[in-house]
Design the sequence.
């Protein structure tokens, strides 16, 4: 059984930065990908970034150049460094490992 707990969300002004963390408990294999998703009010959940074994990374076009995903396998923790935040980044951010999801952390970017 895997549990994921996100943290680091909050209220920030446009142009600011936040760092999200996703701490995992249970058995995590570094060979498996981990992902960040987000869901804004009234919108579908969307993939923001993923990190695979290697590691290699992939980003949604909307966050490329602004967000950086990373993971510390020894700490079983994944991160999302978010810079140059925009109001449209406002959403609940979720981490995912295989079929497991965290409870989400709210990010609000004010203009």
Sequence:
């Amino acid at each position: 059984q895997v549990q994921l707990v996100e943290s680091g969300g909050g209220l920030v002004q446009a142009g600011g930065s936040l760092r999200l963390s996703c701490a995992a408990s249970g058995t995590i294999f570094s060979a498996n990908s981990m992902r960040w998703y987000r869901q804004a009010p009234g919108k579908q959940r969307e993939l923001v970034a993923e990190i695979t074994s290697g590691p290699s990374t992939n980003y949604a076009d909307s966050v490329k150049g602004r967000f950086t995903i990373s993971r510390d396998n020894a700490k079983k923790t994944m991160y999302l460094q978010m810079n140059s935040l925009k109001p449209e980044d406002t959403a609940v951010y979720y981490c995912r490992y295989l079929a497991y999801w965290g409870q989400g952390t709210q990010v609000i970017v004010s203009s």
